[in-house]
Amino acid sequence: MLKLRLTRLGRKKSPFYRIAAMEALGKRDGKAVAYLGTYNPLVAENQVKVKEEEVLRFLSNGAQPTETVKSILVKEGIWAKFEASKKK
């Protein structure tokens, strides 16, 4: 099963994350199927960049987001688009 989750990059006490599609049983920073965006929690402006079409494609094929990734998708408005596409 694929999961949409965060992989950590950056220095100590200076985190930077990638949003990645990975196997559910893989390691946190293991091999990813695809990288779908970035998340920088330390910068207030433009801290999230997401490839919207690819995220929607993975979600429609059954990938499950983690709680953190789902909250990011809700804030970006991508989750609402996914819910609307499910109802069609």
SSE layout and pairing:
Blueprint: E1 2-11, E2 14-23, E3 34-39, E4 48-50, H1 52-60, E5 64-65, H2 67-76, H3 78-87
Parallel strand pairs: 1-5
Antiparallel strand pairs: 1-2, 2-3, 3-4
Task: Using brief descriptors, characterize the structure shown.
88 residues; five-stranded mixed beta sheet; alpha+beta; 5 strands; 33% helix
Summarize the structure.
This protein is α+β, with helices and mostly antiparallel strands and 88 residues long.
Sheet with the most strands, sense and barrel status: 5 strands, mixed
Helix content: 25-40%
Strand order of the largest sheet: 4-3-2-1-5
N-to-C span: 24 Å
Please give the number of β-strands: 5
Q: Tell me the structural class.
A: alpha+beta
Computed Rg: 13 Å
| Low-pLDDT segments | none
